[in-house]
Amino acid sequence: MIRLGETRLGLDEVVAVARDGAGVEIAKSAYERMRQSRAAVDRFVSENRVVYGVTTGFGELKDKRISADDTRQLQVNLLRSHSAGVGPSAPRDVVRAMLLLRAASLTAGRSGVRPEVVDMLLAMLERGVTPIVPLQGSVGASGDLAPLAHLACVLIGEGEAFLGDQRMPAGLALRGAHLQPLTLEAKEGLALINGTQFSTALAALACADAERLWEAAVAAAALSTDVLLGSFQPAREDVMQLRPYAGALEAAKRLRAFSRGSALVESHKDCGRVQDAYSLRCAPVVLGASWDAILHVEGQLEIELNAVNDNPLIFPDSDEAVSAGLFHAQPVALAADYLKIAVAEIASISERRIDRLVDSRVSELPAVLATQPGLESGYMIAQYTAASLVSENKTLAHPASVDSIPTGAGIEDHVSMAPIAGRHVRQIVENSARVVAMELLCACRGLEFRRPLQAGHGNEMLYGAIRRVAPAPDGDRPLSGPCESVAKWVLSRAPLTLAEEVLDA
Length: 505
Prior knowledge:
With 505 residues, the protein is mainly α. Helices cover 57% and strands 6% of the residues.
């Protein structure tokens, strides 16, 4: 059980709630913080203080005063007017992560909402009410306004949502989940949409997937190196300690473990080859650099997962409402852009190994890994597909965070474009998982042509895992289905479990 207000959220907790349905509750201390924060907002309204978004309009309308009698209507109007998202809907896991992260931010007691608002967010998670949130329309400053407005509208019974797997009007979804729409009080609509939760949900889930992808990519590199009769000497510990980047040391340790006991390595120890191509020889360095980047991004995102990013901020002890800029998603944007580059490089070097596996001039395997080259085209197009995905990644890896288009009549004159970085990194991770899947399919096929020689014990375990997902072919066959099946394996927990078994062996 994740207890908001006590549990520090990390990627594992986000994945557990967003994808695995883990339970969430609120700590007693968080309830008390929210009550104190709410009492301060009620005082501001009763005293008719000038507080942004409470007794004023929003954005460029910040100087328009709102009467106490209209504060409820102001919040409803805010959600309706800001529900301007367009395009396809966000994946279910992203929206569930948004619900969790918005609830977590509100429990800090700096947003002035009643505990009932957070209770409603968690009840929707528990009972399978998932708002329909369009993917496009946020610039990642003043919060992810449009996506969060679509999410928040469901709390008042407007918009659309899934109840389980059925899409329906939000009111029906709430009724089916035995929930009553909320009537929002002053500040609560604003508190629901001023945040980075859309950008952060995209980036956090992509980062969690990138960690799984990395484990699979290192394993694929080990198997390909074994099958291509490459050398594991560059991964020696004494070699890597001369340039001891943490990620490179981790990658090299896995390469050595997967290749341990390889008859293939023994078979060519006196072959006379001086050096391998960079995609083999530099694998621990390249993949290690990506791992260091992934861990850096995780650290940045963990700050955001546990942060308050509302505006204005409520300080009950000093009886203040402070306008600030914690909603600006630049830290998330830069982290997501860095993650894009790191993951794109994993796919890039993987594609180069695929090319070597299917090229008989360098692999000394049958051309295109076909049993009857010419009559069969084997795995020729696996490299074409990988090249296509890697090229697409290059376009998507262009940093979104370097762009800014002012909004809000020049008040919001610098924005982060973090949602674009988040959407792109998710696509790059999915593309890269398919590239690594193609490498695994090619490497497994290449190993079959090396029989009766055995690869390293870990590589044989990897071979068995992949063949359970995608059985060995009998002649030509479509590669699309096997690639998708293996890509799902790549993004599952299985690569980490396998790596742990190999390292412990």
